[in-house]
Design brief:
The protein is an alpha/beta fold. It contains 14 helices and 18 strands. Strand 14 (360-362) and strand 15 (367-373) form a beta hairpin.
Length: 431
């Protein structure tokens, strides 16, 4: 069913209350509070975005408005408004105080959604998120130099996913246990067909014994000179797994050109991954990162550059665009080597409320940010995601006609994201 409630994203202005926002759109204050899961409705932040979902929105015409400006405001068309209001016989003549029914929009279509989760995810957060997912990528089983895999407590997540018709994916990484992604560990795997055979046999055994749906390979920081060896490894994996009915997904660095320099990029061969894998996940985030200067985590202009290249190298129906579900809080002035603090998107709005900050919106990055002073008088800047930035990202995925989106990670509950996703798309289930 492609019909859906009307989606409006309201940006809080000075003097706004939940009550008068509700009256403006013909939606109850309780519904706005419930949908957005607002803990303190008395403490709205200027610049905060609220998702308004209306089944039958009734707009009261104000001075200076026309059907055209009203249609633009609600993201619909003049003709749709006329169809919903047959009593309007002259579109150029509407009067102040006249009540106009705003028709619901249609969903943009269907989409597949992947969400990464750590084994320690709060199970209630997982339960609330699963209806919006196609795949659950459980992070992660680390490969060892001998081809064995680390063990994690993934069974509760697999069972919960399958109970919600979500396909669980086994994630393997070249993370050195207790450290980080290791170029040397990947090289060890790539340089021995015996170790690869052991690893692939262990993967197949784990897929079978734990009832996984498929495999997600997240190998990062591959030495540039190991690029072809990684490609050969992918050939071996896919030739073994596909005949058994398992899908293979790979995670790729966000490249904007085939020859992009840098350890993160050079070992990832977009055309080969696109040919061999069933899906690829583009890690389109971390422009703003823990040890980097303050930036939006996933500025839309940069994400668009990655997709512009990706669709030339990989079939569109295999591409998943990454979306971050977090933000960062930097202390200013930024000094190289200092770490930003990770913050949830709802936590960012709470922080703005506590510190009296005003949330601003960067039009180029299409991302919200704000400044505040801490108790020691130090200035901070926070970049995060809100309903507006999520809507822009989801519409970009639809514009590029790619297969889906992938969230890193679903560990922090962000109700507005799922409200917007559900309003724009039907989520495909594959099991």
């Amino acid at each position: 069913n492609l019909e859906v409630w009307l989606l409006i994203i309201h940006v809080v202005r000075a003097g706004d209350t939940i009550y008068n926002i509700g009256r403006r759109y013909g939606v109850s204050a309780d519904k706005i509070i419930s949908d957005n899961e607002i803990e303190n409705p008395e403490r709205l932040v200027i610049g905060q975005s609220l998702v308004i979902l209306g089944e039958n929105i009734r707009h009261t015409v104000r001075r200076g408005e026309s059907l055209y400006t009203i249609a633009r405001r609600y993201g619909t068309t003049v003709q749709s408004i006329l169809d919903a209001n047959p009593e309007i016989t002259d579109p150029s003549s509407i009067s102040i105080g006249q009540i106009i029914n705003i028709p619901p929009t249609r969903r943009l279509g269907t989409i597949e959604v992947n969400g990464y989760a750590f084994p320690n995810i709060d199970m209630e957060t997982l339960r609330k998120t699963l209806p919006y997912l196609t795949y659950l990528s459980i992070f992660s089983h680390e490969v060892r130099p001998d081809g064995s895999l680390s063990s994690i407590n993934d069974t509760p997540l697999i069972n919960a996913a399958r109970a919600a018709n979500v396909a669980p994916l086994l994630v393997i990484t070249n993370i050195e246990e207790g450290v980080s992604f290791s170029s040397d560990l990947a090289r060890t795997i790539f340089n021995s067909t015996d170790i690869q055979d052991t690893l692939i046999n262990n993967i197949i055994e784990m897929l079978r014994s734990k009832n996984y749906y498929g495999l997600d390979i997240d190998f990062e920081y591959i030495y540039p000179e190991d690029r072809e060896k990684y490609n050969d490894f992918l050939r071996r994996v896919t030739s073994r797994l596909k005949p058994l009915g398992y899908q293979v997904t790979t995670a790729l660095a966000p490249k904007i050109a085939a020859n992009q320099p840098g350890l993160l990029y050079e070992g990832h061969d977009y055309p080969v991954h696109g040919a061999l894998a069933d899906h690829v996940i583009l890690m389109t985030y971390e422009w703003g990162y823990t040890y980097g200067p303050p930036l939006a985590v996933a500025p839309i202009n940069e994400v668009r550059r990655v997709l512009n290249y990706a669709v030339t190298a990989i079939p569109r129906d295999k591409i998943f665009m990454g979306i971050p579900n977090y933000g960062y809080d930097w202390t200013l002035p930024y000094r190289r080597g200092t770490a930003a603090r990770t913050i949830s998107n709802t936590g960012a709005v709470d922080l703005a409320a506590r510190t009296g900050a005003v949330i601003q919106y960067d039009e180029e990055a299409q991302a919200p940010f704000f400044n505040y002073y801490d108790s020691d008088g130090r200035r901070h800047v926070v970049w995060f995601e809100d309903a507006r930035s999520i809507e822009v990202k989801l519409r970009l995925a639809q514009q590029f006609r790619i297969r889906g989106v992938s969230y890193w990670t679903i560990g922090r509950w962000f109700p507005q994201n799922w409200l917007v996703l559900n309003a724009l798309f039907n989520v495909t289930k594959v099991i």
